[in-house]
Amino acid sequence: MSRIAKTTLVMAALSLILLPLSALGTRWELFNFRIGLLLFMLATLTGLTSIVLSALYTRRQNDDKSRRTLNYAALLGLPALAFFSLNLFSGGSTPMIHNVTTDPADPPKFVAAPAQRGPGTNPLEYTPELAEIQRSAYPELQTLTTELSAAEAFQLALATAKRQGWEVYLKDEQNYQIEAVATTRWFGFKDDVVIRVTNSGSGSEVDLSSVSRVGKGDLGANARRILSFIQDFKAEL
Q1: Please, what is the angle between helix 3-27 and helix 33-57, to 10°?
Q2: Model's pTM, two decimal places?
């Protein structure tokens, strides 16, 4: 087997090892999330390199074993590159914010979340600067209006939050407020969500805020989470 084939195979295998390690290590808090992201980028880089080397050198090999090895290495390098591309496609153009709401003028206020978040986490405050960025990036985030009473909307919102897989840690039935934590699927990042239900003239209004605990940007995860909740809520009306 040629040296380039061996090298490419090692890089591809390294990519395949680093990809789950980056996620599991972050999710299980074996290391800081920044290390997890660095390992993820390294997995992508080594995977991409193995694919490029395979494309460049496969036809130049004199033996079948080297050619097969290079082809196999290219396949091993695909998962990291595919996962990176998926994330880039789903949220690569989103702004570098991690706090969104359906009511930029008067966002729901967190009550229990500060006790749930450790040191070094992002602030919960929603600023006018965030509101300006959000209105441009996510104009679809709007208050959810319903003909249900506030009490009925609260119960439906609670059931919807649980269907979404969120862990509810505040259920205030008197003030119609819910707070929960949502965990992302891959890295296990924790994002706090607050739901506020208020009476309106013809029913009630439901507003949400979703804030990442770590990271400057969220690749659009918080906005997608709120939109998913609204869609799920409406489907039960």
Answers
A1: 160
A2: 0.89
